[in-house]
Design brief:
The protein is an all-beta fold. It is built from no helices and 32 strands. Strand 4 and strand 5 form a beta hairpin. The protein starts with a strand and ends in a 21-residue tail after the last strand.
Amino acid sequence: MRAIGNGLLKLAGASVVLLAGTTAAPGKADRPYRAKWIWCKVESPNPFQFARFRKTIEPASPPASATASRIGVEPGRVADALAGQPGLVASEFIYESAPFPECHASTIAEAKGRLVAAWFGGKREGDRSVGIWLSRHEEGKWTAPVEVANGVQAGGSRHPCWNPVLFQPRKGPLLLFYKVGPSPRRWWGMMATSNDGGKTWSAPSRLSEGILGPIKNKPVQLADGTLLSGSSTEDKGWRIHFERSPDAGKTWTATPPVNDGKTFGLIQPAILVHKDGRLQALCRSRQQWIVETFSSDGGRTWSSPSPTSLPNPNSGIDAVTLADGRHLVVYNHTPRGRSPLNVAVSADGRTWQAAIVLEREPGEYSYPAIIQTADGRVHITYTWKRERVKHVVLDPAQLAPRAMPGGEWPSEAGK
């Protein structure tokens, strides 16, 4: 066997075409290499003959559309099970080991040209040990997780922390919202700020009575600078409402509940912004569907909720409006369980098409967060089996959307 050119090998007189993509070579995680194990199609009288070779090929140059960005990870680090999907640039764990056994509810933001991610971690969800942990992406890698907030009270008692949300307004400091309390029915909202991209933080402050802050998903900043957060309560049924701040989080007002908690049990809205100024909120529900509601007055009032065509197994979602006006939603495309984890795309927020499968193996892959950074890339974080936080990078210009007839995810997608 010998190399004869770009992606070709010579084997017993037959040309062999390499089918594998790029991945990280052992010990050289910062350099994209051809896969160590290579599946090949043999161009011979039998067009379906395949061979497997154990060989490390020289470093491969990624295509122009997948060149490295100053934000995020190097292209090519994609698990074999996910490789080959158009638009999927890279995937990685934010950390391999940590001083807490469980994690959940990650969030991600871009601040001062760098990525910052946070999540809650501790012995288990709801345990008093649970605090807010954070990592920054610097010099091509994530920093070790550090605890930036906990639920220790003035009298010495301690409550668990919940659902951090990072958000960078167009001006001003990076904002960190989170909840503290014994349970989602009895928690309260907290906020801290950072002027240096998440390296250091102000002392946390409690939000005013009746204000919880963004309950899971990031706010949006409207054209007039107003921050609009999707929020929800669980003490009188699952009900959503929205909170507005005209001054970067200093003061807030809240809408009445949008739903009664009976027809639809809704929490954790994710807000999309349409070109005509309308707002759309996609919500987690107890009714096995992602449910939507619309606002035409900047989030002050909202339409009666109605189900979308997308399933929801009572698990968290997130969504983002891209710079080109399209919308992405990350969710579990299943009526039960928390696998698979999927990305769908829509031009109008109503008709959704299959885009990417992030996970499909058994396990819990849940509570995603999604943003688009200044370089156009899309970054997603999510819970990986409650053990680690996964970070995935997409190039939205390279997505190849596919129809979902009858609401079924195309079986070929992601293979």
